[in-house]
Give the backbone structure.
Amino acid sequence: MSLKNKIITIYDAKYKQLLIIPMLILVLSFAQIGYQLATTGDFVNKGTSLKGGSIISISTEVDAPLIQATLNEKFRELDINVRSITDTGKQIGITIETSAQTDEQITLIIGALHELASFSDDDITVEITGSSLGRSFFRQTFTAMIIAFLLMALVVFLYFRTLVPSFAVIFAVFADIVETIAVFNITGMELTTAGIAALLMLIGYSVDTDMLLTARVLKRREGTILERTLGAYTTGMTMLATTFAAAFMALLFTNSPVVREIMTILIIGLVLDAINTWIQNAAILRWYVEKKDGHHAHKQHI
């Protein structure tokens, strides 16, 4: 028996036991988010655009580790994160994210930068976001994500009009979002408004694959449940592979922190969506269809 056939045999015979994998990932994700909330006061690492602060960008080659160490030493009361901007592996500049919001603090930081590196005024840009404005951005964008999720759930329920399959799709998308946020926290990256836009994109992609699977299993009658699931899997994994390849290449070659954040979230979400769709959702659907068909057969026999 080939490896592929062995995997299909295990997938067919142990589909209920395999549910342990996505359930364990979800539990661990809730644990990570709970720990994040308890230790930082926020369930996710917020970037400057969501919590307030300033972003100082220098478009010339400088010693990023030296700047990070020196600024941390001089401005211990501020949160400072220095990141290199690269193009094809070569540094072309840095971004400095700080919690500084006053002109006095920013002037002091820029003065320290002039002592550490040589650059002109044309090489430096400063963006300031107030803390109240950052909180407002976060509320608005997070509210938009919740509304998008609720509308998606409504459309799913109206389309299938049955509780269990609709719940399976919605639960899979919910798990994708929660688990992606948890893994994103582990990476140490900070979420910005661009990251929330990526999570909105992920909702759309996740529901596509789950709708594909659910429609194939429920609305088609040819073949067994396993055969219908595997047919949907072939189409779904082709979609995933093409999207993953595009996101990975963008992540590999971009020098934009915004694009890097979006692609990182999409790649994490795509991997988790494969687990939640083809293990979790597929198992719930199969259990539901087998129970329903068995119930109908029992009634006909009586």
